Amino acid sequence: MNLDGPLVLATQNDGKIAELRGLLAGFDVEIRGLKDYGPIPPVKEDGETFEDNAVKKAQFTARVLGLPALADDSG
Predict the structure, then answer these.
(1) Phi, psi dihedrals of residue 28, rounded to the nearest 5°
(2) pLDDT tens digits, residue range 2-39?
(3) Looking at the predicted structure, is the pLDDT value of residue 70 above 70?
(4) In this structure, is residue 9 part of a structural domain?
(5) Cα-only R_g, the chain
(6) Range of 24's domain?
(7) Gap between the Cα atoms of 67 and 46, Å rounded
(8) Is residue 9 a contact partner of residue 31, using CB atoms and an 8 Å limit?
(9) Are 31 and 7 in contact (CB under 8 A)?
(10) How many angstroms separate the CA atoms of 17 and 11, rounded?
(11) What's the CA angle centered on 36, arms 33 and 38, to 5 degrees?
(12) In DSSP terms, which residues pair with 7 in a beta bridge?
């Protein structure tokens, strides 16, 4: 995997960021979290499912930062 820039994990949870970095160790990808950027407005998590909320967070983050983003919502 090779991206032109970082892959943003749409979370401020350092543990989740460390976990993803560990899973992708050995790949040419830089993982960043929301704390690596200025204040970003929170996303209203009003989806019907955890998946809905994760998609909403990832799309919002990608749109705001102009970078590829991933998110999860574990409730």
Answers:
(1) -85, 75
(2) 567 899 999 999 999 999 999 999 999 999 999 999 88
(3) yes
(4) no
(5) 12
(6) 19-44
(7) 23
(8) yes
(9) yes
(10) 8
(11) 120
(12) 31
Q: Respond yes or no: is residue 73 known to be catalytic.
A: yes
Q: Quick one: pLDDT at residue 1?
A: 53
Task: Confirm whether 29 is domain-assigned.
Answer: yes
Q: Is 8 helix (H, G, I), strand (E, B) or coil?
A: strand
Count other C-beta atoms under 10 Å from residue 35's C-beta: 12
- For residue 61, is it within any domain? no
Can you tell me the distance from the alpha carbon of 67 to that of 74, in angstroms, rounded to the nearest whole number? 23
Q: How far is residue 32's CA from residue 7's CA, in Å, rounded to a whole number?
A: 6
Once rounded to an integer, what is the mean pLDDT over residues 41-54? 93
Q: Which of 14, 46, 72, 73 is catalytic?
A: 73
Report the number of distinct structural domains present in the chain. Answer: 1
- Write the CA distances from 53 to 26, 28, 38, integer angstroms: 29, 28, 22
60: which 2 tokens?
Answer: 């919002």
